[in-house]
């Protein structure tokens, strides 16, 4: 899968799954627009790509800020001459139930995970309409299809992201603009490191995560990025409105029985 001559916007492209997607896209000839609020990580990912001979720009943006996202998308189109694909990977996790979640947590999580995805789509789609094609990939979660305890706002945001994906798929199919979602299981990224650090024994969190997946391990960011790249690429030209689990079999097993391997 080559991306020569293609421009791909990646929100959350500074770290984790988004960063892996940016690196793979650039290695395969794509021009990458990294949108992220982490200036240090975004700049360093951008620099690493350009030093390796790839094409990338970085714009510091909070994806929940519509005007900032609009400006970053405009800058992308002006720099690279259009937008072919959008990968939405910016996301945050906060913990709480329907009772303990605060207004601030709800607004923060829904603002980044859901409104952030809508912001990116709504300003990227007109550029796709102008060129007569496009592909949007929303990185959701297995928590779009099931839930754990104490993750109310996150689970709501990830379920809703599937609704956003399907709505976009329906509204723009006639203009050859596709939208799909990827639902990863546990992935070894800074988000997981942060979640594990909340436990007095972080290694036990990793161990439990490994055992939870029938493949007996957690994913590397590039393993999720590869699925997103396929959906962003014209190789998946008849795929729209779909939900792809990349979860090491997590949602396939009955009863969540821990694995012995
Ligand atoms: P990560 O924390 O490692 O990376 C997320 C990136 O998004 C970071 O670069 C961060 O700076 C950026 N970001 C966060 N909030 C932002 C905002 N408001 N504006 C701009 N940028 C922002 O996370 P990750 O593990 O790579 O997760 C990527 C996506 O995959 C998220 O949507 C996450 O919910 C989802 N996901 C992750 C896992 C996992 O186990 N890591 C599992 C399932 C789904």
Structure, explained:
By secondary structure, this protein is of the alpha/beta class. The chain has one domain (7-184, 219-244): Rossmann fold (3-Layer(aba) Sandwich). 46% of the residues lie in helices and 15% in strands. It contains 8 helices and 7 strands, in the order βαβαβαβαβαβαααβ. A 7-stranded parallel beta sheet has the order 3-2-1-4-5-6-7, sandwiched between helices. Strand 2 (31-36), helix 2 (39-51) and strand 3 form a beta-alpha-beta unit. Helix 1 packs across helix 8 (221-232). The protein is globular. Bound molecules: nicotinamide-adenine-dinucleotide.
Q: Bound compounds, please? A: nicotinamide-adenine-dinucleotide
How would you spell out the order of helices and strands? EHEHEHEHEHEHHHE
User: What share of the residues does DSSP label as strand, in percent?
Assistant: 5-15%
How far apart lie the N and C ends? 33 Å
Rg calc: 18 Å
Count the beta strands. 7
Q: Which secondary-structure class do the elements indicate?
A: alpha/beta
Approximate helicity band? 40-55%
Q: What is the CATH class name?
A: Alpha Beta
Alpha plus pi helix count:
8
């Amino acid at each position: 899968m080559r991306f020569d001559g293609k421009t791909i916007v990646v929100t959350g492209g500074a770290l984790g799954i988004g960063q892996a997607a940016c690196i793979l896209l650039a290695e395969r000839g794509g021009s990458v627009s990294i949108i992220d609020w982490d200036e240090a990580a975004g700049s360093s990912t951008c620099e690493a790509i350009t030093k390796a001979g790839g094409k990338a720009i970085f714009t510091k943006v909070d994806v929940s800020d519509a005007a900032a996202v609009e400006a970053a998308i405009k800058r992308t189109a002006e720099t690279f001459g259009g937008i072919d694909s959008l990968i939405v990977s910016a996301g945050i996790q906060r913990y709480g139930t329907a009772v303990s979640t605060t207004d601030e947590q709800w607004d923060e999580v829904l603002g980044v995970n859901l409104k952030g995805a809508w912001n990116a789509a709504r300003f990227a789609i007109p550029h796709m309409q102008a060129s007569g094609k496009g592909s949007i990939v929303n990185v959701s979660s297995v928590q779009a299809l099931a839930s754990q305890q104490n993750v109310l706002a996150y689970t709501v945001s990830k379920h809703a992201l599937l609704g956003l994906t399907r709505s976009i798929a329906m509204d723009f199919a006639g203009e050859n603009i596709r939208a799909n979602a990827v639902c990863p299981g546990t992935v070894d990224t800074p988000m997981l490191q942060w979640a594990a650090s909340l436990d007095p024994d972080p290694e036990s969190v990793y161990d439990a995560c490994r055992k939870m997946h029938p493949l007996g391990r957690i994913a590397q960011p590039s393993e999720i990025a590869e699925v997103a790249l396929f959906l962003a690429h014209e190789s998946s030209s008849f795929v729209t409105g779909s939900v792809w689990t990349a979860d090491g079999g997590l949602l396939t097993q009955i009863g969540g029985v821990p694995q012995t391997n």
